Amino acid sequence: MDNSSSTISLASVKTYLLDLHASIIAAIEKIDGQSFVRDAWERPAVEGGSVHGSGLSCILEEGNVMERAGIGFSHVRGDHLPPSAAAHHPESAGCPWEAMGVSLVFHPRNPYIPTVHMNVRFFHITNKENQPVWWFGGGMDLTPYYGFEEDARHFHQTCHAALTPFGADLYPRFKQWCDQYFFLKHRQEARGIGGIFFDDFNAPGFANSFAMMQSVGDHFLAAYLPIVERRKDMAYGERERDFQAYRRGRYVEFNLVVDRGTLFGLQSGGRTESILMSMPPIAKWRYDWQAPAGSAEAKLTSDFLPPREWIQP
Amino acid sequence: MDNSSSTISLASVKTYLLDLHASIIAAIEKIDGQSFVRDAWERPAVEGGSVHGSGLSCILEEGNVMERAGIGFSHVRGDHLPPSAAAHHPESAGCPWEAMGVSLVFHPRNPYIPTVHMNVRFFHITNKENQPVWWFGGGMDLTPYYGFEEDARHFHQTCHAALTPFGADLYPRFKQWCDQYFFLKHRQEARGIGGIFFDDFNAPGFANSFAMMQSVGDHFLAAYLPIVERRKDMAYGERERDFQAYRRGRYVEFNLVVDRGTLFGLQSGGRTESILMSMPPIAKWRYDWQAPAGSAEAKLTSDFLPPREWIQP
Q: Region A171-187: what's the mean pLDDT?
């Protein structure tokens, strides 16, 4: 592992993330016809304060295609890494750290368009020997309400294409990691059809690791937009909207019960409205509801949620 | 503390809880006009299985008054108390235990009727010296969407009346405990206007402790039904329904992020549909939404959610 400080440039990671943030916003505004509201925030450093930094939370609500689409950039730092954030690097607990990333969840209105999540992030610690410890993390995953095999294959193929230049082993590893992470244990059910997930990535050195994360970010629109285009004009009715709202209840359960990032953010005093941009605009719960046998709604659970190999090796 | 086994009767606690469960159901069915669906469940004891028992989950959805009302009885036991459940009794971790209780959350359709929660429970451990360790817990609290001082006063007065025969100190203690417990730290906001909450209650001995818990259970309908009667025919429109759905998002956040009972249940492999009977039928999220200044919606946050003394001493 090349962890030498000479090759690390936080400024270039930040520049990349801000450009990615802007380009995704521009593409979604073009397809939607409405604009994101841009909410820049700053958390000043205060005496004894643990975390400070700034961010840009952008949200498009009640759009033509997007019912609630949130994308945020944030750059925060602290003087003492909390032990809970240093699980994989216990020797760095208490050291100065900074983190930056782009995170998005898009909830389209049309139930035939899947909800999507993407995140790319960089973490940097200055350890007790004054040496840098750093890694990249991120991924993207798709949560359909109605399953379409061509959409699932396209999404996974694009994830595969993003990773393959950096090693043939990455896609299978990150695909499995994603299936394991986005799983509701209390439902014994996957959140969606998966994608890729990675963390603590630094083995090939800074330049290669950064390039890999960039490739994931750069492939997001190619993975998602063709699916939006294909589904956005499909007709739907109350039945499909109702099922979408019911399934979005599972999304809420995942984010609030399972997701470590959300829980850590809320518990550590993060900016609540920014963290909860991932919540759907509307969600429903209904006791022990079962989709009619053989219905499209039943097929989601039987054919799409159990982890599958979506691309042929 | 009178913890002698001679005075403890699990059978009489169970009989009381089942009667309470039935009487609340009967009263709600009478005011609603529709019936609860009764779902009896059993979790058999299996080799190496941690928790077994049975329960009765009852739910009324899409009623005339209730949009989603869930009330459950459960009686579960295990051979080895998990350490996470033995926080206040670390010496009893690993010992045989059983727990029984009635828990309810009622979400009415009319936004002028508050959501209500009530719970009474009994916990019993046989410790390493083969001696019983036991306590009662429970409480009730009210979550209005539109604040009415007379409703808040009535609810708290009834809580006060339930507790006063068992000591003048109980209401103030349990009222404060409730304000502290039903608080969303990540919102810096109370869930509702509170009520009473207690746990680990056994100081006056079994008979008195049991009588106190019975008094709480027995006062529930007197605390809630007059409010339902007063509000159920008030006219409302889309604005009020929308605000109700938005506020119900906070209820979801509390139950999934903060509530120890829900989290413990989901994480320990409890029955998910029974645990999540507390979820509202529908919830909404909207970025950084603020009620118009001076509106009834703004008054909820400014005048009702900050903890107040609702009854004069």
A: 97
